[in-house]
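A quick aside before the break. I want you to see a complete sequence-to-structure record at least once, exactly as it would be stored in a machine-readable document. Don't worry about memorizing anything.
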Amino acid sequence: HGVEKLGKVDLENAIVKTGLLRKSKVKPRVVEKNKSADIFKIAFLDHAGEDVYQFKDADLVVTVGDDTTLIASDILYRFNIPIIGITDGDLDKVVEDGFKAKNSIIFEFESGTDDVVGKKIHELIFKNEKILIRPRNSKNIDEIHGEIIKITNLLNCKYNIITI
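That is the input. The structure line, written in tokens, reads:
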């Protein structure tokens, strides 16, 4: 199942790193950005933390996978972008600690279910697209949070919520 997530891989040029990638404690710089007054841009990132930089202009990123959530939240913190993380507790811990922007939310599901929940969120909320555009209002994050709870209730999954 893990190999499926990799997609096409050039094995002759692949570099595999295991274990902790960053041990040093850092105080990240946060970049201020201009946000659109009219639209709220939500991105979907599924088990692909390396793709996070393409979403540096998003207002919120929904991440799927423990390590993807940890890495993406740490990077997006620098752009002051909150995340809604879909995790299931199988963290490989490629970094020791990660920063999370204010208003971030982590859903921790039963072991092995983050993929199922992520797929349903991508299908039902994002209509299988990477970006979702909505009119900006003061409850955008709460609305997505509520939609995810509805989906998890349909799937009958147990979860804990951690808010930042």
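Two observations worth writing down. The beta strands are 39-46, 60-64, 83-87, 105-109, 131-135, 159-163. The mean pLDDT is 87. We'll return to this after the break.
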